[in-house]
TrEMBL record, chains A, D:
Keywords for this protein: Nucleotide-binding
Family of the protein in this entry: Belongs to the MoaD family.
SUPFAM superfamilies given in the database record: MoaD/ThiS (SSF54285)
Protein name in UniProt: Molybdopterin synthase sulfur carrier subunit
Keyword Nucleotide-binding set for record: yes
Matches recorded under InterPro entries: Beta-grasp_dom_sf, MoaD_arc-typ, MOCS2A, Mopterin_synth/thiamin_S_b, ThiS/MoaD-like
Pfam family, one: ThiS
From TrEMBL, chains B, C:
Entry function: Converts molybdopterin precursor Z into molybdopterin. This requires the incorporation of two sulfur atoms into precursor Z to generate a dithiolene group. The sulfur is provided by MoaD.
Keywords: Molybdenum cofactor biosynthesis
Protein name: Molybdopterin synthase catalytic subunit
Domain of life of the source: Bacteria
Metabolic or biological pathway: Cofactor biosynthesis; molybdopterin biosynthesis
Similarity section: Belongs to the MoaE family.
InterPro entries recorded: MoaE_sf (IPR036563), Mopterin_biosynth_MoaE (IPR003448)
Annotated EC: 2.8.1.12
Native organism: Rhizosaccharibacter radicis
Subunit structure: Heterotetramer of 2 MoaD subunits and 2 MoaE subunits. Also stable as homodimer. The enzyme changes between these two forms during catalysis.
PROSITE patterns: PROKAR_LIPOPROTEIN
Reactions this protein catalyses: 2 [molybdopterin-synthase sulfur-carrier protein]-C-terminal-Gly-aminoethanethioate + cyclic pyranopterin phosphate + H2O = molybdopterin + 2 [molybdopterin-synthase sulfur-carrier protein]-C-terminal Gly-Gly + 2 H(+)
Pfam families: MoaE
Length: 86, 154, 154, 86
């Protein structure tokens, strides 16, 4: 058992009211999609944001990640809207 | 030579151009793009005052470097430079600088377009519009930017 | 705003960029190309020392202006700048500066490519190569340049 | 009857040994192609340059011109190689 370091950016950060947190992961939460489902179950604010239809992107250890990509203890996982730089 | 920077302070376009022009005697063409905060007055809305740019420290630098490395792999470049600012940038302020140097103009110009297109979809930056009445809104991602980047897919 | 210049002296890229960025608050993207005298060492030939550029005074200015006007008619530009030097330009010296400003990046970059492609085929300039042994030869026109300009034909 | 102002550039200028001249045109020399033919007849150096296979371009009054374009007294006519600027 170990923790992940979660980061939030842009309107996700603003609406959650926090920019980061550390959470201990249950062993079955081992992929990006399972992490998102688990986060929504434990956090109604995140659940309503994720359910609002606005796209959310995920990065694991500072690389863009997809649903099936693995998440492990010690990882840095960031949630944010589609990027709008440039 | 690859140079990337994520910074709050303004960049010195002339110094960057001079540095990249000087990477070697073989540089025959230098392409450049500068993105600026532009007025986008919409009927019924207060004028834009500034963009506030947030980024993901660490990942933003590494993605700029990755985009630059991709450009160097795809085009015969002698070097490229990518600088992206963050923080509050009032109207008219430069946001981003892209430079690509090559022996020939076509590679330099193509790489410049490639870099700016990918930067818009692959680098973790987010823009918030600040209007003159103090109201503020996050910019939504434009599908057009995804299409522009997709043009470069093999 | 269109600005063209045919001149012997160096141009100040930073000042030109600043001037064109400042033509209006609507400028969101600025494309730029700088062409430089590059080393083109060929086996068995003495290294290049300089290019000597001759032009047709009067016609060179008016053709630069015409190319700039065509760019403004073809792309939604807020302004563009074309500066072409003549005289003896040693290795590494800038020869030509092209700038195009628009609301959006794609028009700025496309116009930059259009301007430099047309300049190479439509402006009366001729290059002579000067080698380090004092020998000298006029550069032959490259069919590739005609093709690049032809891409822009309707 | 009037004269044209002829200009030569690049290797044409160098090999002819002059950068300009004024010539009185016979009335039948009223187009670009006729002017070139007439110039070659009266000037062996220009004839051998034009016959060397290297392309020559023409501008009339500082506009690129083609074979059929008119030439009139008072015009400025320039002969030069294909351009190599940029």
């Amino acid at each position: 058992m170990g923790s992940v370091h979660l980061l939030y950016f842009a309107w996700l950060r603003e609406q959650l009211g926090r920019s980061e947190e550390r959470l201990d992961l249950p062993p079955e939460v081992d992929r990006v999609d399972r992490l998102l489902r688990w986060l929504r179950q434990r956090d109604p604010a995140l659940d309503s944001l994720a359910g609002s239809g606005r796209a959310i992107r995920v990065a694991v250890n500072q690389r863009f990640a997809r649903d099936g990509d693995p998440v492990r203890a010690g990882d840095e996982v960031a949630l944010f809207p589609p990027v709008t730089g440039g | 030579m690859i140079r990337v920077s994520v910074q709050a302070e303004p960049f010195d376009a002339a110094a960057e151009i001079a540095a990249l022009s000087g990477v070697g005697a073989a540089v025959g063409g230098l392409g450049c793009f500068i993105g600026l905060v532009r007025a986008d007055d919409r009927p019924g809305e207060p004028p834009l005052a500034a963009l506030v740019l947030e980024h993901y420290p660490g990942m933003s630098e590494s993605m700029l470097r990755e985009v630059a490395e991709q450009a160097c792999a795809r085009f015969p470049l002698l070097g490229c430079t990518v600088i992206h600012r963050f923080g509050r940038l009032p109207l008219g302020e430069p946001i981003v600088l892209v430079l690509a140097a090559s022996r020939h103009r076509q590679a330099a110009l193509d790489a410049t377009g490639f870099l700016i297109d990918w930067l818009k979809t692959g680098a973790p930056f987010w823009k918030r519009e600040e209007r003159t009445d103090g109201s503020s809104r996050w910019v939504e991602a434009r599908p057009a930017d995804d299409h522009a980047a997709a043009r470069w897919k093999d």
